[in-house]
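Something for you to look into today, if you have time. Could you write out one complete protein record for me, on any chain you like? Leave the record below and I will have a look.
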Amino acid sequence: MATEACNRDEDNTDSRPGLGKWMLAEDYAHDILSDLLHWVGGWTDWNLALDTNGGPNWANNFFSAPIIVNPEAGEYYKNIQFYALAHFSKFLPPGTRRIQTTSSLEEVGNLQVGAFERPDDGGIVVIVVNSRDEDQFFKLTEAGYGDLKVRVEARSFNTWLYY
């Protein structure tokens, strides 16, 4: 189980939560997918909710979180990492298992790819993360189904679900 994951806006020491900063969601997607590809059975955040300063915590350091709470205004904000977590949670329900993939993408090093089988409906999920500044092309080949070639937009994470 991967635990105590978190990140922060390293470019802005005045605002560690980095509200709306896409890089934080992209970091989460990479971290979650990397862990799942290396036999981790689950993933949790260190702090699901923090205040607008990125705290409090026992170490008195400041980070970001999927939910930022503004107690003075009586508000909370779904930060960008919330949507990365939601993306994986939507497509990979409990009991999902990683399945083996082979790829020539390691040679290019542009895309991170994982494939999974869902327990209840037998669906196959393919997740691709593109952290490059330009679109990349991805070809999925499944024996008995054929090929699917798609464009993976720059700085995005994408999911295909098929049966």
Q: What stands out?
A: The longest helix spans residues 22-37. The chain has a mean pLDDT of 88. The longest strand covers residues 111-117.
